[in-house]
Amino acid sequence: MDRTCHMGALFVISSLRTIFILTGLLFTMTTQASAAVKSEIVCVQCHGSQTGRFAKPVELWRGSIHAENGINCNHCHGGDPGDAENAMSPARGFLGTPVETGIPGFCGRCHVGVLKDYLGSKHGKNLGKGGPTCITCHGSHQVKKTTIELINEKNCSRCHSYEKPSQIKRAMTATEAKIVYIDSRLSDFKGKGIDTSAMEKSLFAVRNRFHTLFHELNVARINLQTAEIDKELEQQLQSIKRLDETEQKRKLVGVMAIASALLAALVLRLYVKSMD
Questions:
Q1: pLDDT reading at 5 higher than 60
Q2: Distance CA 113, CA 87 (A)
Q3: DSSP class of 254
Q4: Global pTM?
Protein backbone atom coordinates (compact mmCIF):
# COMPACT_ATOMS: atom_id res chain seq x y z
CA MET A 1 0.00 0.00 0.00
CA ASP A 2 1.52 3.34 -1.05
CA ARG A 3 1.52 6.42 1.18
CA THR A 4 -1.56 7.99 -0.50
CA CYS A 5 -3.67 4.84 0.02
CA HIS A 6 -2.43 4.55 3.59
CA MET A 7 -3.45 8.15 4.37
CA GLY A 8 -6.81 7.59 2.70
CA ALA A 9 -7.48 4.53 4.83
CA LEU A 10 -6.60 6.46 7.98
CA PHE A 11 -8.96 9.27 6.95
CA VAL A 12 -11.81 6.82 6.41
CA ILE A 13 -11.19 5.10 9.75
CA SER A 14 -11.01 8.47 11.52
CA SER A 15 -14.24 9.63 9.86
CA LEU A 16 -16.06 6.42 10.78
CA ARG A 17 -14.88 6.74 14.37
CA THR A 18 -16.15 10.33 14.51
CA ILE A 19 -19.51 9.34 13.03
CA PHE A 20 -19.76 6.47 15.53
CA ILE A 21 -19.07 8.78 18.48
CA LEU A 22 -21.50 11.46 17.26
CA THR A 23 -24.19 8.84 16.66
CA GLY A 24 -23.70 7.54 20.19
CA LEU A 25 -23.94 11.05 21.65
CA LEU A 26 -27.05 11.79 19.59
CA PHE A 27 -28.65 8.53 20.72
CA THR A 28 -27.83 9.29 24.36
CA MET A 29 -29.22 12.84 24.14
CA THR A 30 -32.37 11.61 22.38
CA THR A 31 -32.87 8.89 24.98
CA GLN A 32 -32.40 11.37 27.84
CA ALA A 33 -34.81 13.86 26.25
CA SER A 34 -37.34 11.11 25.69
CA ALA A 35 -36.97 9.97 29.31
CA ALA A 36 -37.49 13.54 30.52
CA VAL A 37 -40.69 13.87 28.49
CA LYS A 38 -41.94 10.49 29.66
CA SER A 39 -41.28 11.47 33.30
CA GLU A 40 -43.80 14.31 32.92
CA ILE A 41 -47.41 13.49 33.57
CA VAL A 42 -49.75 13.47 30.58
CA CYS A 43 -51.43 16.72 31.70
CA VAL A 44 -48.12 18.59 31.42
CA GLN A 45 -47.17 16.84 28.19
CA CYS A 46 -50.48 17.75 26.53
CA HIS A 47 -51.04 21.28 27.85
CA GLY A 48 -47.33 22.08 27.66
CA SER A 49 -47.34 21.39 23.93
CA GLN A 50 -50.27 23.74 23.30
CA THR A 51 -50.48 27.51 23.03
CA GLY A 52 -52.69 30.24 24.47
CA ARG A 53 -55.09 29.64 27.36
CA PHE A 54 -54.68 25.87 27.25
CA ALA A 55 -50.92 26.18 27.81
CA LYS A 56 -51.18 28.92 30.46
CA PRO A 57 -51.89 26.67 33.49
CA VAL A 58 -48.73 24.61 32.89
CA GLU A 59 -46.68 27.72 32.15
CA LEU A 60 -47.76 29.29 35.47
CA TRP A 61 -47.48 26.02 37.42
CA ARG A 62 -43.82 25.57 36.37
CA GLY A 63 -42.94 28.69 38.37
CA SER A 64 -44.95 27.74 41.46
CA ILE A 65 -44.09 26.41 44.91
CA HIS A 66 -46.25 23.42 44.00
CA ALA A 67 -43.99 22.48 41.05
CA GLU A 68 -40.93 23.05 43.25
CA ASN A 69 -42.28 20.49 45.73
CA GLY A 70 -43.51 17.94 43.20
CA ILE A 71 -47.21 18.79 43.50
CA ASN A 72 -48.64 18.00 40.08
CA CYS A 73 -51.96 18.76 38.33
CA ASN A 74 -53.55 15.51 39.48
CA HIS A 75 -52.77 16.21 43.14
CA CYS A 76 -55.29 19.09 42.97
CA HIS A 77 -57.55 18.22 40.03
CA GLY A 78 -57.53 14.43 40.34
CA GLY A 79 -57.66 12.21 37.24
CA ASP A 80 -55.16 9.72 35.89
CA PRO A 81 -51.80 11.39 35.21
CA GLY A 82 -50.44 8.33 33.41
CA ASP A 83 -53.23 7.74 30.90
CA ALA A 84 -53.95 10.46 28.33
CA GLU A 85 -57.30 8.97 27.35
CA ASN A 86 -58.59 8.84 30.93
CA ALA A 87 -56.68 11.75 32.42
CA MET A 88 -59.89 13.76 32.76
CA SER A 89 -62.24 10.91 33.50
CA PRO A 90 -64.47 11.35 36.60
CA ALA A 91 -64.21 7.59 36.98
CA ARG A 92 -60.48 8.12 37.62
CA GLY A 93 -61.15 10.82 40.18
CA PHE A 94 -60.96 13.89 37.94
CA LEU A 95 -62.43 16.89 39.74
CA GLY A 96 -61.85 19.66 37.24
CA THR A 97 -62.10 23.29 38.37
CA PRO A 98 -64.10 24.06 41.53
CA VAL A 99 -66.81 26.71 41.68
CA GLU A 100 -65.89 29.87 43.58
CA THR A 101 -67.41 28.85 46.90
CA GLY A 102 -65.75 25.44 46.60
CA ILE A 103 -62.22 26.82 46.20
CA PRO A 104 -61.30 27.00 49.93
CA GLY A 105 -62.42 23.41 50.45
CA PHE A 106 -60.56 22.38 47.28
CA CYS A 107 -57.26 23.84 48.55
CA GLY A 108 -58.05 22.92 52.15
CA ARG A 109 -57.82 19.19 51.42
CA CYS A 110 -54.06 19.67 51.88
CA HIS A 111 -53.93 22.99 53.74
CA VAL A 112 -56.21 21.92 56.57
CA GLY A 113 -55.01 24.42 59.17
CA VAL A 114 -55.01 27.29 56.69
CA LEU A 115 -58.59 26.46 55.70
CA LYS A 116 -59.63 26.73 59.34
CA ASP A 117 -57.84 30.08 59.69
CA TYR A 118 -59.39 31.40 56.49
CA LEU A 119 -62.95 30.33 57.34
CA GLY A 120 -62.63 31.98 60.74
CA SER A 121 -61.41 35.24 59.23
CA LYS A 122 -63.38 38.17 57.88
CA HIS A 123 -62.30 37.10 54.39
CA GLY A 124 -63.70 33.60 54.88
CA LYS A 125 -66.93 34.84 56.40
CA ASN A 126 -67.55 36.77 53.19
CA LEU A 127 -67.08 33.73 50.97
CA GLY A 128 -69.71 33.83 48.25
CA LYS A 129 -70.59 37.43 49.17
CA GLY A 130 -67.85 39.11 47.20
CA GLY A 131 -65.08 38.15 49.63
CA PRO A 132 -61.77 36.75 48.41
CA THR A 133 -60.98 33.05 48.00
CA CYS A 134 -57.55 31.43 48.15
CA ILE A 135 -56.75 32.20 44.53
CA THR A 136 -57.59 35.90 44.91
CA CYS A 137 -54.39 36.41 46.90
CA HIS A 138 -52.31 33.29 46.14
CA GLY A 139 -53.14 32.69 42.46
CA SER A 140 -54.57 29.52 41.02
CA HIS A 141 -51.52 27.96 39.36
CA GLN A 142 -48.51 30.20 40.01
CA VAL A 143 -48.83 29.66 43.74
CA LYS A 144 -45.95 31.30 45.57
CA LYS A 145 -44.33 30.45 48.88
CA THR A 146 -46.24 32.19 51.65
CA THR A 147 -44.37 35.24 52.86
CA ILE A 148 -45.39 38.57 54.26
CA GLU A 149 -44.72 40.09 50.84
CA LEU A 150 -48.14 38.78 49.78
CA ILE A 151 -49.51 41.68 51.80
CA ASN A 152 -48.91 44.58 49.46
CA GLU A 153 -50.81 47.54 48.10
CA LYS A 154 -51.24 46.02 44.64
CA ASN A 155 -52.87 42.85 46.00
CA CYS A 156 -54.96 44.32 48.80
CA SER A 157 -56.18 47.46 47.06
CA ARG A 158 -57.92 45.35 44.44
CA CYS A 159 -60.64 44.83 47.05
CA HIS A 160 -60.25 47.52 49.72
CA SER A 161 -58.06 50.25 51.16
CA TYR A 162 -54.45 49.35 51.97
CA GLU A 163 -54.48 51.23 55.30
CA LYS A 164 -55.27 48.28 57.57
CA PRO A 165 -53.17 45.71 55.64
CA SER A 166 -50.21 48.10 55.93
CA GLN A 167 -50.68 48.14 59.74
CA ILE A 168 -50.79 44.36 59.77
CA LYS A 169 -47.65 44.13 57.65
CA ARG A 170 -45.77 46.53 59.94
CA ALA A 171 -46.81 44.44 62.95
CA MET A 172 -45.46 41.26 61.36
CA THR A 173 -42.39 42.38 59.40
CA ALA A 174 -39.82 42.17 62.22
CA THR A 175 -40.98 38.68 63.21
CA GLU A 176 -40.86 37.49 59.59
CA ALA A 177 -37.30 38.82 59.27
CA LYS A 178 -36.22 36.88 62.39
CA ILE A 179 -37.74 33.66 61.03
CA VAL A 180 -36.01 34.10 57.67
CA TYR A 181 -32.69 34.87 59.40
CA ILE A 182 -32.90 31.86 61.74
CA ASP A 183 -33.87 29.58 58.85
CA SER A 184 -30.89 30.79 56.83
CA ARG A 185 -28.46 30.31 59.73
CA LEU A 186 -29.76 26.80 60.43
CA SER A 187 -29.20 25.91 56.78
CA ASP A 188 -25.61 27.18 57.09
CA PHE A 189 -24.97 25.13 60.23
CA LYS A 190 -26.59 22.07 58.68
CA GLY A 191 -24.30 22.45 55.64
CA LYS A 192 -21.33 22.28 58.00
CA GLY A 193 -22.53 18.98 59.47
CA ILE A 194 -23.93 20.43 62.70
CA ASP A 195 -27.07 18.72 64.01
CA THR A 196 -29.84 21.34 63.88
CA SER A 197 -32.83 18.96 63.73
CA ALA A 198 -34.26 20.00 67.11
CA MET A 199 -34.02 23.69 66.25
CA GLU A 200 -35.52 23.07 62.81
CA LYS A 201 -38.54 21.35 64.36
CA SER A 202 -38.97 24.18 66.81
CA LEU A 203 -38.73 26.79 64.04
CA PHE A 204 -41.21 24.83 61.91
CA ALA A 205 -43.77 24.94 64.73
CA VAL A 206 -43.21 28.63 65.42
CA ARG A 207 -43.39 29.51 61.73
CA ASN A 208 -46.69 27.65 61.36
CA ARG A 209 -48.13 29.58 64.28
CA PHE A 210 -46.90 32.80 62.72
CA HIS A 211 -48.49 31.92 59.39
CA THR A 212 -51.88 31.48 61.05
CA LEU A 213 -51.76 35.24 61.58
CA PHE A 214 -51.70 35.78 57.80
CA HIS A 215 -55.50 35.43 57.84
CA GLU A 216 -55.98 37.44 61.03
CA LEU A 217 -57.23 40.99 60.47
CA ASN A 218 -57.27 42.15 64.10
CA VAL A 219 -54.13 44.26 64.48
CA ALA A 220 -54.20 44.24 68.31
CA ARG A 221 -54.38 40.42 68.35
CA ILE A 222 -51.56 40.21 65.79
CA ASN A 223 -49.36 42.45 67.97
CA LEU A 224 -50.09 40.29 71.02
CA GLN A 225 -49.33 37.00 69.28
CA THR A 226 -46.22 38.22 67.44
CA ALA A 227 -44.86 39.38 70.81
CA GLU A 228 -45.26 35.82 72.15
CA ILE A 229 -43.71 34.34 69.00
CA ASP A 230 -40.82 36.81 69.25
CA LYS A 231 -40.00 35.46 72.74
CA GLU A 232 -39.63 31.96 71.32
CA LEU A 233 -37.58 33.23 68.41
CA GLU A 234 -35.31 35.06 70.84
CA GLN A 235 -34.50 31.70 72.46
CA GLN A 236 -33.56 30.36 69.04
CA LEU A 237 -31.38 33.39 68.39
CA GLN A 238 -29.58 32.71 71.67
CA SER A 239 -29.03 29.10 70.58
CA ILE A 240 -27.58 30.34 67.30
CA LYS A 241 -25.29 32.66 69.22
CA ARG A 242 -24.04 29.68 71.26
CA LEU A 243 -23.46 27.68 68.07
CA ASP A 244 -21.48 30.62 66.67
CA GLU A 245 -19.33 30.74 69.81
CA THR A 246 -18.72 26.98 69.65
CA GLU A 247 -17.70 27.25 66.02
CA GLN A 248 -15.34 30.13 66.77
CA LYS A 249 -13.70 28.09 69.53
CA ARG A 250 -13.37 25.14 67.15
CA LYS A 251 -11.70 27.34 64.55
CA LEU A 252 -9.36 28.78 67.19
CA VAL A 253 -8.37 25.29 68.32
CA GLY A 254 -7.72 24.35 64.69
CA VAL A 255 -5.52 27.40 64.12
CA MET A 256 -3.62 26.70 67.34
CA ALA A 257 -3.11 23.06 66.32
CA ILE A 258 -1.71 24.11 62.93
CA ALA A 259 0.50 26.75 64.53
CA SER A 260 1.78 24.20 67.07
CA ALA A 261 2.55 21.71 64.29
CA LEU A 262 4.43 24.35 62.30
CA LEU A 263 6.35 25.45 65.40
CA ALA A 264 7.25 21.84 66.21
CA ALA A 265 8.45 21.32 62.63
CA LEU A 266 10.57 24.48 62.85
CA VAL A 267 12.09 23.44 66.18
CA LEU A 268 12.86 19.97 64.80
CA ARG A 269 14.46 21.46 61.71
CA LEU A 270 16.62 23.79 63.83
CA TYR A 271 17.61 20.87 66.06
CA VAL A 272 18.58 18.71 63.09
CA LYS A 273 20.54 21.59 61.59
CA SER A 274 22.40 22.17 64.88
CA MET A 275 23.46 18.51 64.91
CA ASP A 276 25.10 18.81 61.47
A1: no
A2: 30
A3: H
A4: 0.68
